[in-house]
Amino acid sequence: MFEDFEARAMRAAEARAGTRKDKLAEELRGLLPQEVQVETSDEGVLPSGPRTRPPRRNGCQPALDDCGAAQMSGAGQALAEAVIAALRPIEGLNHVYDGPPLTAAFPHAVVEVGPESDWSHKSGEGRELRLSILVRDKGERPMRLRGLVAEIEARMGQTGADLTGWRLVNLVFVREAMLRETGAAWSAAIDYRARLLRA
User: Fold this and answer.
1) pLDDT recorded at residue 29
2) Is 34 exposed, middle or buried (0-12, 13-18, 19+ CB in 10 A)?
3) Cα–Cα distance for residue pair 13/10, rounded to 1 Å
4) 35 in the Ramachandran plot: left (φ > 0), alpha (ψ -120 to 50) or beta?
5) Which has the least CB within 10 A, 14, 22, 26, 58?
């Protein structure tokens, strides 16, 4: 008797769910363009056809290209190039890299631009980015590293506003951390927040 009741309850629930799906599908067919088909299945109501994705706003491009590779806006690249050019003349710094090197002589710096977010306004395109500078050195004590960090911070305060295709609106210091690595290696990370507008 209990199995019979359970089976009837299950059939009634499935019938109600099917009725709800059919009703929802009808409502969607009335709202969507004719070229978009609406299908019901066990998983629910799914639109299909040529226009199942919403149109892009204001000519915005997808974050990934057709091959699935991430696209850079150009703002991050322009900022990284400007920072690398500003840090290269620092005396005592062997090299400034735009990504982690496999092998490098100490001391060296790595400039990386992290997440980008939209900072546009109604009349222009803008980006907000995170900029990280990692400085690595070897030695018993981090005295030389501290001097390099102070010089880098001074150079960052003098960064020009005009970048390739972009204008640097502000560059704000976020944090600094110094850590001892394995052996006698030391590293210092300096993070900034940058806001840029397209020139």
Assistant:
1) 74
2) exposed
3) 5
4) alpha
5) 58
Token pair 């997808």 is at which residue? Answer: 62
Higher-confidence residue of 33 and 176: namely 176
Distance CA 90, CA 148 (A): 8
**3-state class (DSSP) for residue 77:** helix
DSSP conformation class of 58: G
Give dist(CA 77, CA 56) in Å, integer: 24
Cα 5 to Cα 1, 11, 15, 43: the distances in Å are 6, 10, 15, 25
- What HEC string does 131-199 produce? EEEEEEEECCCCHHHHHHHHHHHHHHHCCCCEECCEEEEEEEEEEEEEEECCCCEEEEEEEEEEEEEEC
Q: Does the structure show a pLDDT above 70 at 177?
A: yes
Does 7 have pLDDT greater than 60?
yes
pTM for the model stands at 0.63
All domains of the chain in start order, with CATH: 2-58 (no CATH), 75-198 (3.30.2000.30)
User: Which residue do the tokens 């911070």 mark?
Assistant: 153
Alpha-carbon distances, residue 131 vs 16, 81, 97, 175, 176 (angstroms): 55, 12, 13, 11, 12
